[in-house]
Amino acid sequence: MTEAQIRETMAEVKKRTQKTAYQIHIEHGKEPGILDSKFGGAPYWDLSKEYPTDSDGDMLALLAQINFDQLDTDGTELPDKGMLQFFIKPDDVFGLDFDEPDLQDRFRVVYHETVDAAVTKEQILALCPPVSVDTEDMPVYGEYAIAFEKREISMSDSDYRYDALFEQCAKEKYGAQVEYAGTLYAEAGEDTYEAVTSDEFQTVGHWLLGYPFFTQSDVRGDSDALADYDTLLFQMDSDSGDQEEYVLWGDCGVANFFIHSEDLKKRDFRRVLYNWDCC
């Protein structure tokens, strides 16, 4: 394929996969409350529920929480109210299960349909949960308020489905005129690949919905069972600034949480795939 054909095919993929998502930014200098959307810190918790623990009885730590009462989710698959939380075990692999990454034991995704505004931080801390600011084995080094930027985003070639879709679009557009090499990188060659992808896709960073970024590869492409997780629910990237680390997954890695689109519509968060990788 010529560079012009590659660019035109990429534009078609971009058009077909465009969706609304929220890029997440850390708000430095703002202290979040117990009910606010944030990374790390003490979690909100419904005191009528049992706090999340793993099969060893160890309490999990808050990675992030999203308060939908504070976020306009119109036009997306997300709930329009309540709180979504992501917990992991504070250990040397941040709660990752390499054999069963969708087994919610050392990680947990919890959705509270309603938020009790009367719950206090003191009541939560009385439960003695591990908190990122006091725990070494966490990728989040503090407690950070977060803000959301609503954006339109398209699939990048980090997603295991990209190459098949690219080939389909190329064949539909050019038919027998093209012979696809199997991956965008192989088809384009290093120089053209760098040129055509430099500004096309921006899937790095922290996201709610959208499409994933990986430092290694998309684990969903390794198993038919994992391929069922077709929707990026949440992505937390490594994050630093002013010679200070805020979030660090191993050696500058990234974490992803995936869900099936039908489960998201039903607000059923029992089946979620959690993975992180690093360079």
Cα gyration radius (Å): 20 Å
Overall 3D shape:
elongated
- Level of helix content? 10-25%
Number of helices: 6
Largest sheet: 10 strands, antiparallel
User: In which order are the strands of the major sheet placed?
Assistant: 5-4-3-2-6-1-7-8-11-12
What structural class do you assign from the helix and strand content? alpha+beta
How many angstroms separate the termini?
Answer: 30 Å
Q: Average pLDDT value?
A: 95
- Poorly predicted runs are none
Beta fraction? 15-25%
Query: How many strand elements?
Result: 12
The assembly state of the depicted protein chains is single chain
What's the order of the H and E elements? Answer: HEEEEEHEHHHEEEEEHE
What does this molecule look like?
The structure is a single chain. This protein has 279 residues and is an alpha+beta fold. The mean pLDDT is 95. A hairpin with a 2-residue loop joins strand 9 (239-241) and strand 10. It has six helices and twelve strands.
Distinctive features:
elongated, 10-stranded antiparallel beta sheet, 18% helix, 279 residues, alpha+beta, 6 helices, 25% strand, two-stranded antiparallel sheet
What's a concise summary of this model?
The chain is 18% helix and 25% strand. The chain contains six helices and twelve strands. The longest helix is centred in the N-terminal third of the chain and has 15 residues, at 3-17.
SSE layout and pairing:
Blueprint: H1 3-17, E1 19-27, E2 38-39, E3 61-67, E4 83-88, E5 107-112, H2 121-125, E6 144-153, H3 162-174, H4 184-188, H5 190-197, E7 206-208, E8 231-237, E9 239-241, E10 244-247, E11 254-259, H6 261-265, E12 272-277
Helix pairs in contact: 1-3
